[in-house]
Amino acid sequence: MSQQFRVWMQQKQDQCERALADFIPQASVVPGHLHEAMRYAALDGGKRVRPLLVYAAGQLFDAPQEALDRAAAAVEMIHAYSLVHDDMPCMDDDALRRGKPTVHVKYDEATALLVGDALQAQAFLVLSEGNASAETRLGLVRLLAHASGSVGMCGGQAIDLASVGLALTREQLEQMHRLKTGALLRASVLLGASCGKTLNPEETVALNTYAAAIGLAFQVVDDVLDATADSATLGKTAGKDAADNKPTYVSLLGLPASQELAQQLCREAHGALDSFGEKAQLLRDLADLIVQRQA
Amino acid sequence: MSQQFRVWMQQKQDQCERALADFIPQASVVPGHLHEAMRYAALDGGKRVRPLLVYAAGQLFDAPQEALDRAAAAVEMIHAYSLVHDDMPCMDDDALRRGKPTVHVKYDEATALLVGDALQAQAFLVLSEGNASAETRLGLVRLLAHASGSVGMCGGQAIDLASVGLALTREQLEQMHRLKTGALLRASVLLGASCGKTLNPEETVALNTYAAAIGLAFQVVDDVLDATADSATLGKTAGKDAADNKPTYVSLLGLPASQELAQQLCREAHGALDSFGEKAQLLRDLADLIVQRQA
């Protein structure tokens, strides 16, 4: 990882943090308890991979930072709400997230449910406001709604739930992840790029290919880390997948083949960006980051 | 209730049902289990009060039916998702809704959580598409996101949760309901009207006054019915509020004063519509319906 990329990343993580802090109502706004819990769930945590993809893809087309801040905050609110709901006892029942107690542990289950619901609404509110043209903002809303709903993230979670204990084929596993985590990662890339311009078909195909590859790579690496890292490094409970008898790339392909698959997907992601030249360097660096991350 | 209004109401309830059936993916679309549960939650049930408000307010400004169908379906999806989440064990823990087993009883808790999440995303997707201008659609998204989020419906639910067992003042009770049920009812009126034209300040004030009055009346009547009707008539568990030690208008003002308050709010709602003349008759009839309903 280059020093320049490291600096850029820190800068954008800070920028996203400020955007989230601005776009989620303060705890002084009624109902204060809910807003405090929403801020607990979304602020000060995570690698902000999705916002980084938004900013990097936005840079490709010189998108205005104001629009990118909204897109980055919105996609991170969707991601944060999904974690809050995922961690609840009726789903993964996890007590630790990003090294902190999960929302239902810190507050209670009913609050966690409402925090997730309200973060989702807030994401669409943030996208619907701002300085971009009505067409642009509407396009962002549509992208995010599609990627986070029943044929995107929520759909992937439903398939995941239904798959526990089943022997999935590699295609079935891939389809689940394409929805569960892939859809939102892909949306992040398209959201960022769409803040800059209306994409032509070639650009859409190239960015979709890139996004599909890193989306899958992200999940393969997640499975590898769940099998190899410890909870302290991950900031969440390690070894959960095996304990929960969940199908993973590691259980399906084994560890070495999973690691090789991640590398191959990274090369695919790089290849998809060729036509963009130098301006896509941040997206290349992010693909590397996703595959090389340790947590 | 006039025969003409009764016919209109049945027509629009059917129209809303068809719109919901169209706008929620079929159970044949992957993931079928989730889509089936979403349809179970949203179709074939309820009085469709919010959609009726959308259609009635739309008629005021001759809004196109295509846009109204989207707005009606979207607001009903938000309402349906809130019921699914509300009924979960960590919230109201209710087994019966609209005379049918609640979603977490019929399926399971994890599915109920995802059904609610996915219905919310679908509501924003439906609003973001269609034939209305980008400005109009964006305005609808903003209205609905604001009304359903942390300073609207979700916020009201958070205040409600925090109020169990507390002695609320009438103002506090009113504020809670203004958010919990009032915000979405108000949004329904504004969504419908906004499908027809961009509202001027006088129209906005008049419709807001109408919507605030019927929103509050709706809740007062709800409290009255919870105290007086039986579960079979309500299609949900009666007497829950008292059993849960929840503050209600009946517990605060007593039954006769609550009934008189509902009547007074109905007169306020009528008064707010004076400037619209004959074209507002459907909204007047709906105010009467809300106050006179028996379930």
From TrEMBL, chains A, B:
Cofactor(s) recorded in Swiss-Prot or TrEMBL: Mg(2+)
Task: Enumerate the Gene3D superfamilies for this protein.
Answer: Farnesyl Diphosphate Synthase
- Output the PANTHER family linked to this UniProt entry: FARNESYL DIPHOSPHATE SYNTHASE
Q: Which UniProt keywords apply?
A: Isoprene biosynthesis, Magnesium, Metal-binding, Transferase
Q: What is this protein called?
A: Polyprenyl synthetase family protein
Which Pfam family is an annotated match for this chain, by its short name?
polyprenyl_synt
The entry's family comment says: Belongs to the FPP/GGPP synthase family.
Which interval of the chain is the signal sequence? none
The record ties this protein, via PROSITE patterns, to: POLYPRENYL_SYNTHASE_1, POLYPRENYL_SYNTHASE_2
Transmembrane ranges? none
